[in-house]
Amino acid sequence: xxxxxxxxxxxxxxxxxxxxxxxGFANDITNPMVAAFKNIxxxxxxxxxxxxxxxxxxxxxxAIPAAIFIKKFSYKRGILVGLGLYSxxxxxxxxxxxxxxxxxxxxxxxxxxxxLAFLETTSxxxxxxxxxxxxxxxxxxxxxxxxxxGSLTGMLVAKxxxxxxxxxxxxxxxxxxxxxxxxxxxxxxxxxxxxxxxPYLMLGAVVLAFFIIFAVSRLPQATAxxxxxxxSSTRAVARRLLGNKLYIRSVIAQAFYVGVQIMVWTFIxxxxxxxxxxxxATAQGYNMVAMALFVSSRFICTFLLKYFxxxxxxxxxxxxxxxxxxxxxxxxxxxxxxxxxAISACMSLMFPTIYGIALKGLGDDAKLxxxxxxxxxxxxxxxxxxxxxLIDKAVWFGDALSSVRVSFALPLVCFIVIALFGSWVGRRIxx
Length: 431
Prior knowledge:
Structural class: mainly alpha
Distance between the termini: 32 Å
Number of domains: 1
Radius of gyration: 21 Å
CATH superfamily: MFS general substrate transporter like domains
Number of strands: 0
Oligomer: single chain
CATH topology: Growth Hormone, Chain: A
Low-confidence stretches: 223-230
CATH class: Mainly Alpha
């Protein structure tokens, strides 16, 4: 631990690392809500996946303003703004539930992730700055290893506190109520939406407590140990970054990675429902198995980075992810579901490794560069609705492939892009 994080910075490192678990919880309590809103409000896969559009849209809008803010002020103030918006978004579930309006829930998700954009834009480069440049990628992988712990907790809450308690009425049952007794349907929907809102309100209270903890804690100023210290205007920094081929390609690779991560974890429920006839709560159990694999693989990959170049591990894991995704598309039944679960083991290394590759040696430019990488989370904003649209279109290839299986061609393309990026970085290092 001391080799990765200096002894004097262990407490700030631990405190900031808790934020990784906090936004992991938000991400993965939200993914299953795509399927939940579809059934509760009788909307299409495309419409329900707008949850992800709103959730990750906040990253797109707020990443650059967050970077400008922390460049002008400090990492600590950026964290406080992030926690404040995060908590406010959670509390917006109260009016959203009362109005029973889907757009109000989308707005709540959007405000939440404006806060998460501040937290991620701040925390990732802050962790990189807490020690020597040589150990920066390992340090970020270690901090990111606690992100899926929050994710697992969010999945468990989604399964046991939300999905298992929702009214068991099927879509057909609800359509029958809509035509025969709309008031009864409205009562069922109100009850279900209250169940959905409850955990978010508790989350808002927890995040508010963390706001107070950070407000009273002393956090060190980041040093410019990561590369050359250069104080310059935002415009000058942007020009340098736009001329940095490694950075630009890293942002593109990160967009494809986030897209594949959100698609795999969002539509595992639809795959299990349509291909195997599972309930949402049972299917969410497989999502939790996938996250457990992700967590285990993250710690294993952090250890392997002592012996292998990050770009090499990134490339081979992307190839493994592509092969597993091909299994999801072409293998029917439980084996296909197992391939879908196994993808998570291949994804564990990717986000922090691409992040570390992109920011290495950027010095104070890392503050704005971090925003571009958080902006890349927009891949999670655009790709899930595209996959949902593919599922809705019910395209069949003869009798062999259902629409939900065909839709995983999008994650397959993403893994191919990531593998090409990792291979290119490896060649660049060798040359």
